[in-house]
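User: Please fill in residues for this 121-position structure.
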């Protein structure tokens, strides 16, 4: 299939389980920015099956442990762009895991994703 995420080589996997794998984002917004990608081709979270959701939880925890080990982040943003109008550019399920650090938010701004979305609208 002509889909970038259907063609990621297993050598690029940071962690994997039965239904998902994680890779480093090629354009990280923070140190360690990674993507959890489904092994099955579908577009958004709304199509995750009842079985897959259990594996999604597991791989989030696996990836968090790997990122904690390598980068010691102080927080995380988890995000999904579901649909073109929500910013999705690759139409194969992926969950952004974005490590956050005290020094990437020197003003201690609150709001997280809400603040980011308000900024661009
Ligand atoms: P989205 O805008 O939510 O669809 O996000 C797509 C993400 O995939 C972006 O953060 C890209 O930097 C990332 N990306 C695209 N192609 C690749 C690739 N081949 N390997 C790793 N990350 C990729
Ligand atoms: Zn795909």
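Assistant: Residues filled in for all 121 positions:
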């Amino acid at each position: 299939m002509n889909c970038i995420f259907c063609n990621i080589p297993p050598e690029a996997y940071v962690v994997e389980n039965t239904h998902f794998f994680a890779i480093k984002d090629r354009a990280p917004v923070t140190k360690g920015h990674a993507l959890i990608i489904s092994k099955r081709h579908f577009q958004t979270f709304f199509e995750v099956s009842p079985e897959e959701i259990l594996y999604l939880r597991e791989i989030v925890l696996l990836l968090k442990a790997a990122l904690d080990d390598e980068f010691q982040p102080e927080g995380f943003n988890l995000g999904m762009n579901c649909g073109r109008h929500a910013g999705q550019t690759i139409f194969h399920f992926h969950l952004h895991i974005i490590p956050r650090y005290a020094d990437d938010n020197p003003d201690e701004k609150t709001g997280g994703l809400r603040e980011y979305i308000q900024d661009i609208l």
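For context: Residues 4, 23, 25-27, 35, 81, 87-90 surround adenosine monophosphate (ligand 1) (CB under 6 Å).
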